[in-house]
Amino acid sequence: MHLVDVLMAGSVFAIASSSSLQLWSATAVRAQQLTQRDQLAQQIETDRLQLQILWRDNLPLMGSSSGCSATAAELLTLATNSPVPPALRRDLQLSADEQALHIHWSASRDPQLQRERLVTPAGLGLCSLPTAEPAPASDRTETDSPITDSQVEGLAS
Fold it and tell me: What is the pTM of this model?
């Protein structure tokens, strides 16, 4: 083998090694960025769940059938007093009709990572519906009772 061949093979090997190292480095950086993004998304989800638990524990369902026991303003007050994870930013705002709370999370390190939720007391299960008494059996018509298989087969023919 001549000296020129050895030098050429060495330079090709060095260039290939450098390119491979750059590709591996770029892949590792991208994997690390995705891991950090997933961790931030998990922190947002954890904060959302902690708020939901906070609301359900501190705003219990009223025993009466008169509707909601909590308001969106109460949701806002509790959420404002709840700590925000350090890597996140949480913006709270009442809706125009003050019936819901709009929550916007964003990550300080990744401005593209954002989540939004519109929360209402009814959506959290803090409202009860008035219960209607079932009609007495004597007032029920045939249409009130469930259809049986034989009735369905009779309709098909």
Answer: 0.63
Q: Structural domain tally of the chain? A: 1
Which positions ≥6 away from 48 have C-beta within 8 Å? 103, 105, 115, 117
Domain of 68? 3-128
| Cβ contacts of 43 within 8 Å, gap of 6 or more | 85, 87, 88
Mean pLDDT of 13-27: 84
Longest CA–CA span in the chain (Å) reads 109
- On whether residue 13 sits in a domain, the answer given is yes
Characterise 67 by phi-psi region: left (phi > 0), alpha (psi -120 to 50), beta (else). left
Strand partners, 103: 92, 117
Angle of helix 3-58 versus helix 72-81 axis, rounded to 10? 130
Residue 153 pLDDT greater than 60, yes or no: no
At 36, list the tokens.
């950090």
Query: Does the residue 137 lie in any domain?
Result: no
For residue 135, the model assigns a pLDDT of 56
Alpha helices in 59-148 (DSSP H): 72-81
* Residue 54 token pair: 């906070």
